Amino acid sequence: MEERFVVFGINDLKYAISINLVNEITNACKISPIPNNSQIIEGVVNLRGDVIPVINLRKSLNIHQTFPQDHQIIIVNSEYGNYGLIIDVAHDVKTFQKDQISPISEVGLINTELISAIINANGDIIQLISIDQLLNRNEDIKSEKREMILC
């Protein structure tokens, strides 16, 4: 069985998310900061009239450098709504066989709640990011969703 992923880079590392979660990938655009917001939410962008919160994946992954000026944003769909993820560069959409994908528990790594699996792409290691875990671990995102439902 095969699965398709968007593969992208942050620094020299490769990451992936399921293609099923991706709405689009856009080039750098103006991010408007929101005061008193979550540490991982960089701000919001206006994408064709839709205001979308943007998550700084570098902060989520404890990468302490700032994102480049020519960054890209992956717009993902989740149970909490649409979110943008700041990345350095989108590489490609790739198809991997099930036997190339090792759940993180099988690899023997601990304390990697954002990484759900490791993909062995012909010797190239790609870390599979769990969007659910990224959004679930952030209380501000969950409370924003509850407020939207109550309104």
Automatic annotation (TrEMBL):
PANTHER family: CHEMOTAXIS SENSOR HISTIDINE KINASE-RELATED, PROTEIN PILI. Residues 2-140 form the CheW-like domain. The lineage of its organism: Bacteria, Bacillati, Bacillota, Clostridia, Eubacteriales. InterPro entries: CheW (IPR039315), CheW-like_dom_sf (IPR036061), CheW-lke_dom (IPR002545). This is Chemotaxis protein CheW.
